[in-house]
Every structure is written in C-alpha cells, then in structure tokens.
Fold this sequence. Notes:
Four copies of one chain form a homotetramer.
Chain A (H helix, E strand, L loop, with lengths): L9 H16 L6 H8 L3 H7 L3 H25 L4 H18 L1 H10 L8 H25 L7 H20 L7 H17 L6
Helix pairs in contact in A: 1-2, 1-6, 4-5, 4-6, 4-7, 5-6, 5-9, 6-8, 7-8
The structure holds a DNA duplex (21 and 21 nucleotides).
Amino acid sequence: xxxxxxxxxxxxxxxxxxxxxxxxxxxxxxxxxxxxxxxxxxxxxxxxxxxxxxxxxxxxxxxxxxxxxxxxxxxxxxxxxxxxxxxxxxxxxxxxxxxxxxxxxxxxxxxxxxxxxxxxxxxxxxxxxxxxxxxxxxxxxxxxxxxxxxxxxxxxxxxxxxxxxxxxxxxxxxxxxxxxxxxxxxxxxxxxxxxxxxxx
Amino acid sequence: xxxxxxxxxxxxxxxxxxxxxxxxxxxxxxxxxxxxxxxxxxxxxxxxxxxxxxxxxxxxxxxxxxxxxxxxxxxxxxxxxxxxxxxxxxxxxxxxxxxxxxxxxxxxxxxxxxxxxxxxxxxxxxxxxxxxxxxxxxxxxxxxxxxxxxxxxxxxxxxxxxxxxxxxxxxxxxxxxxxxxxxxxxxxxxxxxxxxxxxx
Amino acid sequence: xxxxxxxxxxxxxxxxxxxxxxxxxxxxxxxxxxxxxxxxxxxxxxxxxxxxxxxxxxxxxxxxxxxxxxxxxxxxxxxxxxxxxxxxxxxxxxxxxxxxxxxxxxxxxxxxxxxxxxxxxxxxxxxxxxxxxxxxxxxxxxxxxxxxxxxxxxxxxxxxxxxxxxxxxxxxxxxxxxxxxxxxxxxxxxxxxxxxxxxx
Amino acid sequence: xxxxxxxxxxxxxxxxxxxxxxxxxxxxxxxxxxxxxxxxxxxxxxxxxxxxxxxxxxxxxxxxxxxxxxxxxxxxxxxxxxxxxxxxxxxxxxxxxxxxxxxxxxxxxxxxxxxxxxxxxxxxxxxxxxxxxxxxxxxxxxxxxxxxxxxxxxxxxxxxxxxxxxxxxxxxxxxxxxxxxxxxxxxxxxxxxxxxxxxx
DNA sequence: TATGAATGAGACTTCATTCAT
DNA sequence: AATGAATGAAGTCTCATTCAT
Lengths: 200, 200, 200, 200
C-alpha cells in the first residue's frame, strides 16, 4: 500500500470525472450516478467529499478561476505598459486552456448560465477579471496609451472575444496550429490593439 | 366576444412565458408547471401546441435567429464596403436586443450549452452568422480593406465581443444610456475597426 | 348529397377504426386520438356516439357475441345429434372469423383480460357459450353419445382449443389453406370427437 | 439483526406484489404506485431493481416459462411414448399452477395480448412449447401412435384446451376437487387421447 | 472512509373527457 | 351533428440525497 504516486486519490478521481462530464454533457445532464460511474467510486463516497452536487461544480470553477486571479493580481501590481499586460493575460489564458482543455471548456460553458445557486460566486470571481481589465484600460486612457472609450465596454468586449475564440478552438471549429498557439497571443493582441483596419 | 385584439392567443401566452422564464431562470430550472402557471394555461394545453419541452426552446431560438438570418442574407448580397456592413450588423443586433431584451438574453444564454438535443440546430443557425462574417473579412482582406489575419478567428472574436457586451448590458452590468444605444454601433465599430490603440 | 351507399356513416367509420386498432394494438395502447385519426373524425364526434371509451369496446364485443348467441340459441332448441351440433358451432365460428378477421381477433384478445370494467358483461355473454356446450355434452352423456366426463371441463377445453387454433391462424402462425378453411370444421370435429389416438 | 430467514428480501417483496397485482388487476391497471404500496417499498426502490415496468412483467413471465422449458427439454430428449409424455406435460402444468396459482394466472392472462414490448420474448418462449408438442405429434404420426392430422394444429388445440381449463379453474369457474387435481391429468389425457366420443 | 440500497419529491408527458363554437 | 382547443388528474420515471453496514 505504499503510495507509488501512480494511483489517483479518491478526491482526484471524482474531480477528473466531474470536469470530464460537466464540460462535455453539461451540469444538469450529468447525474450523480454518471459521476460515480465515471470516477469508479460509489455514490456515497462522493458525498464524503462534497456537500452536494453544486459544491462539486463550485470547486471546479473556483480552482479554475483562482489560478487566474493570482496571475492577475500580480499583473495588476506591476506597472507594465497596458499593451504588454494585455498580451500576458492572453498568453496565460491560452496556456491554461491548452494545459487543461476540459476544465477550460467547463468554465467557459458556465459563463452564460443564469441564476444557478453557484452562479453568484462564479460571477463574483468573474467580475474580478472584468474589473482588472476595466482598470487597466482606464489607466491606459489616462496615460494616453489607449483610445478614448468606455473602458468597461472594452473590457467585456475583450473578454467575450477571447472566450469565444478559445471555446471554438477547443470545440474543434478552429484549426489551432502549433504556430497559432505560439504566436496567437501576440497576433490577437495586435488585432485587438490596432483593430482590423488595414494600415495600407 | 368582439375580438379587441387586446387578448393574447394561447400560443402567444405560452411563448411569452417561455421567453420570460427560460431567459431568467434557465431551461432546466423552469418546469412545465412553472411554464403553465406563468402562461396562465393548463399543462396539457402546452402539449397541445408543442411536442415537448425541447421544442419550445427550439422554436424560441429559431424565431430569434431566423430574423437575423434574413438580414444577413440581404447584406451578404449587397456589395457595401466591409466597415459599413459591420456597422449595419451591429446596429441590427443591438436593435433586436433592445426591442426584445428577454428573447435576446435567451439566445445569448444558449450559445455555450453543450450537447443538448436542440443544440445541433442552434449551432447550424449560429454558424451561418460566423460564416457570413468570415467571408466578409476574407473579401475585405482581398480588397485591402482589412488587415491580414485569420478571418475566421476575427469573426469569432467579433461575435464574442458583441455577445458579451450585449449580455452584460442586458444583465444590468453596463449602463447603456440612450446615447450609447444610439451611437453604440458606430462606436463599437470604430473600436473594433481601429483597435483600442490611441492614435495620438 | 344523395347517399350513394358508397360513403360510410360516421358511426361506421368509428366502429371500423375501433376494431382495427383495438385488435392490433390493444385497448390501452389505443388512444382516443388514434381512434379519431384512424376514423377520420374529430375526437368530439366520437363522444357524440359513445359515452366513453369503454362503451366502444363493449359495443364491439356485444356485436360479435350476439351474433354467435343467436345461432347458439337456435342450435340449442334444435335436437340435432351432439356431434352434428358440434360441427355446426365450429363451422359458424370459423366462418365468422374468416368474414371479419379483425373483429374475431378483437374478441379473442379480450378473453383473458382480468377485471376490466367491461369484462363483466363480456364474461356474461361468454358464459352463455360455455353453458350451451356444457349442456350439450351433458345431454350427450345422458344419451350415450358422449363418453363419461365432466361436461363443463370438456366445454372449456373445446372452447380453448378452438380459440387458440383460430387466433394462431389469424396471427399467421398457421397456414390456413383454402382447403383447411373448407374442411377444417369437420376435421377439427373429428379430432375432438375421436381424440388423437391412432385407430390403427 | 440475526437473519431468521423469515424476512423477505426487497426483490422478493416486489416480485410478490407484481404477481399478485398483475394477475388480478392486469398489467395496465396496476400503477407503479400500486405496486410500491403492495410491496411496501418506495417507488424509487422498484426502479433500483428493474429498469422499467415492462421488465418486471418480463421477469415474471421468464421465470414462469423457464421452469417449464427445462422440463420440456428433458422430456424431449427422453424417448417415452407420446401418450406418456402428454400425461407428464399435463401433470407438470397442473402442478405448477397449483403450487403458484397467481403466477400461473399471470402467464395465462398474457397469452393473448397483442403487440406489447415484452410480448415478443413471451412469444419466443411460448413457441418452444408449441414446437415441442408439434414435434411430439409429428413423431407420433410417424410411429403410428397418433392419428393422421396437422400436428401443429393439434398442438395449438391442446395448448388452448389446457390453458382455458386451467384458467377457468383458477378463476373459480370450475370446482377442482382434490380428486380432480390428482386424477385430472390422466383424465384429461384420456379425453384428448380418445376424444369425447363414447366407446359404447 | 467507502458502500450502494432505499427514499420520495418532483420532473415530463399522456390521455380520456369537456365544452364553446 | 361535428369540431378540436383546453383541461388536469394520473401515469412512468429520474435523481439528489440519506443511512445502516
């Protein structure tokens, strides 16, 4: 029984099953039975680790967002130029999704759900991202780096653009070549930064 | 019994209830009982008009998207400059949402749901939009109006940006003043067109 | 509008639909909607002709059995030899089923249903048949035409044998050649009469 | 908690309730609520043990017929004279019904139902019986034990006769004295074997 | 900690029946 | 007489959750 680091813990098995099923079938379409079967544990076991079904989702969301939160706080405290921060944020986002496609899909799927019990906390965490970007743009406007605009609108526009591109990529609607995944963040930054107008 | 055109048809009552509840509580969280109560009809009456619950959602989605499809086909056949078409599309979108906030919310909420029965048809309609924009940008690149970029990525980015801004506005996260709703499309077009870089 | 005797009356349409569906799908599996659709009339129309669904079945059953009852009463009052009466009854039965297969199936299907509302009356009518045969055999025993046996047991055995053969024939499990339908009654009578023992 | 072998298992409770209600009220007239109440368990519990309502009936049918199948296979492989096998089959049948009247009634009630989901498998099992008898008679004809006749017709006639007698007995229409139940099979065999003609 | 049988509220859906037209 | 939209009770089945082992 010496743990050889090969065997997953029960907790890990449940978490993996949840990410897999919630992101591919959806929260409601996944029953506790499905979850237990996918994880290879008994239903009762899941209830030893989570209070109820909502808490499972909540934990997945928290874990995914908290990682992002941390990076954002660091960036927020740096005084890097706006464009630079923007590229870093995009790069972080794409890397996260690349590293764990399924969890990324899970979070992105949740973004538009109304009114669920765990939606409140989810929105709280999500708003931090929006606030960070809003402030970033606000400061950019003040320093002249960014064109005059409603910074919150710009923030949501940016988030929406990135989310959608990512989701479609993960869903297989976009061929994300190696090259795109490497240069993508810079290209996307440029696109957003300079707009789609030809400079000719 | 003189029909004063004030009274809603049964079908209309059901439709209104569905839009109201699906967009505010979500599809799964809305039971047929809820729906019947909100519409002021018996449960059986709903089944007289719709085959099952999914078909109700499907009809709402179809109706919302088919209106958009028509406008897009017209634009597609016009030969207006890319930027102009872009502004027209945004204007159409905002007007639609303004005119029927709830239905707009309903559709936007559905964009990210995985795997439901009606998701297939929904995606088919949604892809037409994406294809239209992709072609628009592709032609723009060829005519030199648009900077060199992956036109499909740009299309999804644009869609995501607009969806998110709209959804947040409808959800009350953005104060959309009268002025914004009037000038919004032009401003948003400019933002997307020139990017957020200051021209100073 | 002069009735050209080609057009079925509404009542006839309903009756035909009922026989068709009840015998092929079963009573419970046939909804009033199915019935209305098959008959080509509105649901409400059916309720102008029948009090409720049970009454429709009841009427089918009554009609089928009353025809048989009449013949049996006549036979009962005749003083034909037992074997002769037996053959006549079998012939009548097979002819009836041949003439209206579906109605025959309907009745045979009902023979074994427990406890239904209309089962009571059905059984009353069915028992008349059993009683007739019981009396027939009883008299046969008294006159020495029939071997000593429990006449009621013999009656039920006969009924069961005939029903089952008929039902299987109608269901396609037996190839009932023209020849069998002609000579069947006599052969079956002989089989029952002399048993299956070889006379060699 | 010492299991005194007096307490029924949940499965057994459900099975007993199903046999009781299906045979007395009928399949359609028995709701899952009825079943749960009679068994003294929750509705959900039934679904823990059976996939759906049809599967419950199917299991009852299978159990009843599989016992019969086994005996028949043994007889089939024996080379006993036809008349002897016939008597043994009848004896087995009557004993089975005597031992578990209700289950017997259940099966007999199902014999005539059209088209239900579980009817297909039921018919498969039932046909084995018919085939066995058909072959038995066929061989009897070849060996000269049995009179020349369509052996399949004879098989169905026999089955029908026995079923109906049994069912009426169980339903209380026949007074089956101890004596009859003991000597019944021999008498019934004789009746079928020699026919009802008096040998005088 | 782990199990999985048991629970029962509540979901979706069907369907015989009514009634205004 | 004929229609069919409307009704709502009752049906089957699902599922998050509990609890004795």
